[in-house]
Structures are given as C-alpha cells and as structure tokens.
Amino acid sequence: xxxxxxxxxxxxxxxxxxxxxxxxxxxxxxxxxxxxxxxxxxxxxxxxxxxxxxxxxxxxxxxxxxxxxxxxxxxxxxxxxxxxxxxxxxxxxxxxxxxxxxxxxxxxxxxxxxxxxxxxxxxxxxxxxxxxxxxxxxxxxxxxxxxxxxxxxxxxxxxxxxxxxxxxxxxxxxxxxxxxxxxxxxxxxxxxxxxxxxxxxxxxxxxxxxxxxxxxxxxxxxxxxxxxxxxxxxxxxxxxxxxxxxxxxxxxxxxxxxxxxxxxxxxxxxxxxxxxxxxxxxxxxxxxxxxxxxxxxxxxxxxxxxxxxxxxxxxxxxxx
Length: 320
Hints:
Radius of gyration: 23 Å
Helix content: 10-25%
Number of strands: 19
Distance between the termini: 54 Å
Largest sheet: 10 strands, mixed
Strand content: 25-35%
Order of helices and strands: EHHEEEEEHEEEHEEEEEEHEEEEH
Number of helices: 6
C-alpha cells in the first residue's frame, strides 16, 4: 500500500474464482473483510475501473485498485481509569473488567468507559477498521464482570475477531441462578433474537433468532440456588441471561430477565439486596495472534459475588 493509502492488486491464477472482498482482505491483512465490503459498496475499491459487488468472482489479470480513507477520530477522551490487567504485550491486553464498567461510549454516557481507560493506558493504539479506537474484540454487559480481550493493533484485532467468528475461542462463565437444577449438566440450543414486543430485550421467541448454544454444569447446589459453570459456543447478546431465564432458572440479580424483587433470601429471616446480576466471565482461551500459542486466563470472582456465595455455603463446605 502506498503512502497515500492507495493500493493496486493484480489478480493471479491462485485467486481465480474467489470473491472480490475475500481477495482484497487476504492481500491486505490489516483490513477486516467487513470493512473491505463497505469500501467496495461505497465505490472506493474498483476492479478494472468498474464498480462491482463484494461477491464478484475475480479472474486472472483483473486489476483491483482502491483507496483506504484515513481513520475517523473517535469523540472520546483518554481517562486515567485503573485497569486490572491479567496480561499485556505489544499486541493485546487481557483485562479483568469490574461490574458497572461500560465498554463503549454512547449518547449520554461519553465518559468513564473501558474505551476511555484504554485510550489513556495505550495512547499509541493503531486505527482499527475505519475508526481510531481501541480494539475491543468482544463485549460484556455493563454489570457482568470478568475477563475481556482488547487488541492493540489492527492485525491482532482481525485475527482475534476471526477466532471469535469461527468459535475457536473458549469462554467460560460462572453464574449464580435461582433454583436447584436436578441435572448435573445440560445444553441449551435455542435461537436468540430481539424480543417480539420489547425491543430492548432479547428472547428465544424472536421470529429472527440466531443460533445460540450454551453448555452448563452445576458447580454446587445451595438451598434455593445453584452455582453454574457455563460455556457458550456462540456470543449472542445477553445469551447466558436469556437461556438461564428460559430454563426457569434466571441469574440472581438480573433486573431484565430475572425476578423483579431483587432481594435474595439467604434464610427465612435473613435477606440480602442484590445490586447486579451474579454473572462473571471466568475463563477465556484463545490463540495468540502472533506467536500462535494457546493462551488461557482466569479472572477471580469479584468480591460481591464471592461474598454472596460464601454466605450461601453450608458450614464446613470447602472453597468452590
């Protein structure tokens, strides 16, 4: 690619019959395929000086020319928000996100986010996609705690994003749910999409639900609740919360899919207010985008969740 962000690709025999967006993305690894498709549709990438669709099948001798617009600045300022880092190198960070921390700025919530913290911690973050922003590879709900990956470079972001899309990343959570499950393990395979009535919620009854698979096993049963280890094979919005509620065992403290009364009864005479959903991203395993080694990181249970579990444990029970 030239200094003015223009490029030229001459299609070789090896690429014959492949999609235009795939060829460009493979030749320019710093660009995601979704960005390439956007640039093709906006006529910033041409083939033989003609406008084509992203799915156009290239032929040997075709000439692809394009221009990559400069990254758009993000309207977000760095802030000295402490980060609990589980790992960091020149390519990525693994963060233990506290409950209550929002990932991305949004209207009415421009400060105090993880993006603000990352911009302060890594002032030299490269442009990813067509926006200058830290490379958040996946997300956690505001009130879900635990392990989260962020990329420092565009190439690392693309590699990690591909792993999530191909489902080669292993993600395990711990969830405290209402009720005692009878089975020790189980699988929930119900599509998830927007709720047919309440558009702010997700549901297994959506007419446009996408495949969602959740594996769970019981780590411990308490009197009126269960501690689950949950592994998700897909990454749908609110997946664990929706699937647990659909089973009839909603996550303790979930204000959207759980019980409206967020008071947890420890004993008939002792009740405990629950400030948030008791859901924690506990473990993540992925391939490092550069050295290709499998990496696994765990985030310890946050204090509020650990304290509630401690109160639920019968006398004499060892650490879970």
